[in-house]
Amino acid sequence: MFVAIFIDYARIAAFKVQTERMTHAAMRSVMSAYDTSLREYGLFGYGDSSGDAIMAKVLNDSVKPSSVKDGFPILDIQWDTTSLSMERELGRYDIFNRQIQEDMKYRAPVDFTLEVINRFKPMSDEMKEAAHTVDLLKKLQKLYDKREALLDEAIANQTESAEKLKNLPKLIMDPPSQAIYEEMLEETPETAAEAAARYADYLNKKRADEGLPFREQQYILELTRYRTGVSNVVTGISMIIQPALQAHQTKLEEAQSKIEEARKMNEEMKRVIAEGENRSQNASYDNVGNSNLPGTSPASTGSGSEAKSTRSLASELVRTDSLFDQLKARVDSQNSDFSNVRRDNMELNTQLRNVRDMSGVPIKPAVRQASQITERYMDTYVRNGPANLILQSKQQLESGRGSDAQRKANDKESKGKLKEVKRILSQIEKGSSGSMDDFKQLEEYYNANIAFNEASREEAQKAEIAADPYDSGGDAMKGMDSLFGGMSGLLDSLGDELFQNEYALAYFNSMDFGQLITWTEGGDAGDVFKLENQELEYIVYGFHNPSGNIAAAYAEIFGMRLAIRTAEGLIEHSKLGNPLLVLSAAILHGITNAIADMVKLAKEGSVELSKYIKVKLTYRDHLRLFLLMHSNNERKMSRMLALIRLNTGVNPDEKQTYASGNMRSSVKLWFLPGVVRSIGAVMGSADQVEDGRFFIERKADYSY
Q1: Residues of the chain with pLDDT under 50
Q2: How many whole angstroms separate alpha carbon 237 and alpha carbon 374?
Q3: Which of 14, 199, 402, 596 fits a 20 to 30 Å CA distance from 530?
Q4: 3-class DSSP string for 294-328
Q5: How far are the Cα atoms of 307, 326, 604, 635, 689 from residue 402, in angstroms, in the given order?
Q6: How far apart are CA 690 and CA 666, in angstroms?
Q7: How far apart are CA 11 and CA 6, in angstroms?
Q8: Is 309 domain-assigned?
């Protein structure tokens, strides 16, 4: 009995080992039925076979009686129940990401990626200072131009108000004089001075005709001409003073407001300069520049000292507070002086109106007073000369704009070149609609996967190249911030994003950039706009139309080239002095050379990283960098999954990658089942023995 018990115990141990092996073999067989179309993308997902049928066949075959004649079955294993569950769909981000890592870790992508970072490492300081300088000066340029425009508008308001009085002296005394000599009443007076000079003769002739019958009056015509002339002068003065009053009340008030607004712009410039030295994006450049990576980096292109020196001159763009005080004081003075002009001319008009009804009106003193105060106003605000306060204001403003003319000439040329680039971009955006059905289907698959993962959907941003050179340059530098930020992120953690980017490059197609540029020049578009030839661009940008992704790639390559060439321009034009002039010249340099780079990339297939780093970058190298810049991993994965579904006809959202199997089997006990049951009871597993058979359960889980 003692020996018999150990015989069954040995059979049970062998039974457990054999069952474990057969369970794992069954699960391996189930998982071997993967979808072969997904394997083209280095992925595994369970195919369309019945997993339960495969598992049952493998298990049943494993317990078939031996074909050996007179064989003695030591273990008569019988399968009682089996179950199989499949889960963890390939379309889920965590599963897809894990399979990407499993596939890409054998492709050694790290070396190449680090090589790319090594290429940019020598220019990190230069690009940091260039991006910092362009960022600061771009903000200051906007504020500077707005401030100067406001000051010009204030001066224009003063000039417009003053010009309302330019014809007034001709109605008072032309030419002006201190003395008014008596004249005979022979012609109609055209000025107040002439009316005053002929007033005595007018009174004499008026008295001579007074009291006489109408037919006997001798001076009717002369007196009528005089009165008509005086009325014309009065009307003329009123027609000048009234509009001038309205202009001075509104325009000079506007001038004061504009000067105050310009002062606020000036204060804002001070704030921007003060805060400009603390730029958070600089940390990414420093991280790349200070990295210790394997491989050899090109020689450094410089420390960016030229750009930093240009940035240090930014304070020269700020106007002094005393200037704004002077400008406001001159506006106040003009308002006050006009009030005096209006008062004396209204008094003169009153005297002139009285000549018809009263005798001995003091016209001459009124004329002299009005003339003197008006002439003083004309010299101070209208006529060119050293006493003209408006001219003094203009000269003060111009003294701080020594380089504006050259800067505006640069800006005009830059805008012309940008206009041509925008024309090409617009041409690409119109593109072709030949693959629209594919893109609609792709969008449906993309939305389905986003919903499947309960992720947020974000609309792709339209490709833009700003028409304003400063905005264009600023946008280009923001792109470099994103690029170095992405590189810095990789250095901190060489993880998911690196593998995803390299996976996209390994399995998806990109367009022929040379063929695209040939098409923009009038050639044949070929297959450029077909979906199968712009898969990588779609993964980067996510437009669901034939031209959006290509246009975005074109705009971003131009932006990257513009940023690098603008940094070079800051070095070459740093001696121009005025920081805004340096910036405008650098941006013009950048635009000009970026356009040339685009042509070279199309015709030769590659372009040098910069003037100082003779490393070649291809079109796909640029896309590799843009994958870093657009670090939206979830949407990036959904786009790849949508492409895989479109290209293979297999929905990753329905393909499981994990199988869990449960099997219950038994073996007959030969000796003393009751004794073994007793031993089992002691071990806490009495339910393993039923009707003389020993039962066990085994579970096996397998994942791709």
Answers
A1: 681-684, 686-687
A2: 12
A3: 596
A4: CCCCCCCCCCCHHHHHHHHHHHHHCCCHHHHHHHH
A5: 21, 21, 43, 51, 103
A6: 9
A7: 8
A8: no
Looking at the 3D structure of the chain, how many domains does it have? Answer: 3
635 and 553 co-located in one domain: yes
Backbone angles phi and psi of 189, in degrees to 5: -70, 135
Whether 304 is in a domain gets the answer: no
Residues of the domain holding 609: 403-648
Cβ atoms 83, 684 nearer than 8 A: no
Look at the pTM and tell me if it is higher than 0.85. no
Q: Helices 469-492 and 548-572 meet at what angle, rounded to 10?
A: 100
Do the Cβ atoms of 445 and 646 come closer than 8 Å? yes
Torsion sign (Cα): 356, 358, 363, 369: negative
pLDDT of residue 356: 72
Tell me which residue of 574, 567, 570 sits closest to 613, measured CA to CA.
567
Task: Say what the pLDDT of residue 694 is.
Answer: 83
User: Are both 518 and 632 inside the same structural domain?
Assistant: yes
Among 629, 648, 667, identify where a domain stops. 648
Give the Cα separation of 622 and 561 in Å (integer).
Answer: 10
Q: Are 276 and 314 in contact (CB under 8 A)?
A: yes
pLDDT for position 111 = 58
Specify if 112 maps to a domain: no
Residue 660's closest CA among 93, 26, 22? Answer: 26
